[in-house]
Amino acid sequence: WDNFTQTVIDESAGVTFEEINSLNDIIRPKMDLITKENFFRIFRLDLYKQCPFWTGTEGFCMHRSCAVDTIDDWKDLPEIWQPEALGALENVSRVPESNKASKDYCEIDEINEDTVYVDLVENPERFTGYGGDQSFQIWKSIYSENCFNLGQDQCMEKNFFYRMISGMHASISTHLSNQYLDLKTKQYGPNLKQFMFRVGNFPDRIENIYLNYILVLKALIKLESLGILDNFEFSNQDQLRDELRDMIMPSYQLGDNTEECLFDENSLFQSSDAVEVKDEFKQNFRNVSRIMDCVHCDRCRLWGKVQTTGYGTALKVLFDLHNAKEIREPSRYEISNVELIALVNTFDRLSRSVESIKNFHTLYDLAIEKE
Ligand code: FAD
């Protein structure tokens, strides 16, 4: 691991693991506060949508740890969410909200009778016991979306797609290893063996987590620098906007030209058939987001949806939002509350993964010393 942490993440990234670790040390406490705010801790979704790809998803994860505690009475929602919930109640019986999303990178659930609101802080992502053939089938289908039928430059976009998925998978594995159930004590805590087996023994998986960290952070930097955060109504929590800015600011210190040095999205989708390549990329990632409705474990599905929506939003911001002028056409490039909440929580997941990797590194060194 020692040499590894000094390595430059990626030729195009130009930033080391160590630099990201230091940045994350500054960002982590700020993210802790932000994700506990009412605006960011509540996620709206349809938890019971039919799997669109295959039948036989009736198998349920019966563990208590697979369950999600939903906020059943919308009147119990924090005040900031009341207007949306009440408006939704009135509209549900009328025309369903049109899914504007065919141009988006992920499918976002419409508000309907099955809509639920979930407090993410009360339903943490951790070990649930979900596994075996069922979860294997899901991951297999997700990776199979990596099959592109692209033109000449397919390697770059295909490689990027694969790394993003692998980084998401590795981040989920890191969380479940960090919050693993000890059957003796019935407590959740770090399990080094699980981490090494799932992530630590695979440098490429760790690398992909860091790459996703940069990807999502860059999307947040772009939203901030284009002034899009000003478009959000944080109700009486205007300070939240400042907290968010304050969290993003230190990442500018990484280099004079952070936007260039972190991850160069401009190197992708440059071939002569870029339009088709991007369409296919978009379609494939949309399918990944739809596969989340096939996940049998509710808690895993919840966090799977949060994260695919978060990555989908990051892709939309980085690849489709070109300049501030376009933002004035909100119907084309609107970023909804759900998308911003998913983006911020996905960054929180990655930031926690980076912190956990550091902690597992220490545990690993201690275990080696003992041997
Ligand atoms: P899996 O993690 O299922 O991996 C299957 C195969 O994929 C491996 O054998 C390996 O060949 C390959 N692989 C593994 N990791 C990577 C990687 N990073 N990059 C590339 N290839 C890889 N379980 C929980 O306990 N809590 C959760 O919150 C949770 N959320 C989930 C969310 C989703 C969307 C899905 C599909 C599953 C989730 N699971 C969760 C289940 C968990 O991800 C594993 O599937 C389960 O623990 C079984 O693990 P496994 O060892 O069989 O390997």
Task: Give structural attributes.
371 residues; mainly alpha; two-stranded antiparallel sheet; two-stranded antiparallel ribbon; 15 helices; 4% strand; binds flavin-adenine dinucleotide; FAD binding; flavoprotein
Overview of the structural elements:
It is a single chain. With 371 residues, the protein is mainly alpha-helical. 56% of the residues lie in helices and 4% in strands. The chain is built from 15 helices and 4 strands. It has helices spanning 2-6, 17-34, 38-41, 82-92, 132-144, 154-178, 192-200, 203-225, 238-248, 258-262, 274-291, 298-320, 324-327, 330-333, 337-370, and strands at residues 42-46, 115-119, 180-182, 187-189. The longest helix has 34 residues, at 337-370. The protein is globular, with a radius of gyration of 20 Å. The two termini are 17 Å apart. Mean pLDDT is 83; it is low at 93-100 and 256-261. It binds flavin-adenine dinucleotide (FAD). Flavin-adenine dinucleotide binds at residues 125, 127-128, 130-131, 135-136, 138-139, 166, 169-170, 172-173, 176, 205, 295, 299-300, 303-304.
- Taken from the alpha-carbon principal axes, the silhouette is globular
Helix/strand-derived class? Answer: mainly alpha
The molecules bound to the chains, other than polymers, are: flavin-adenine dinucleotide
What's the N-to-C terminus distance?
17 Å
Into which percent range does the helicity of residues fall? 55-70%
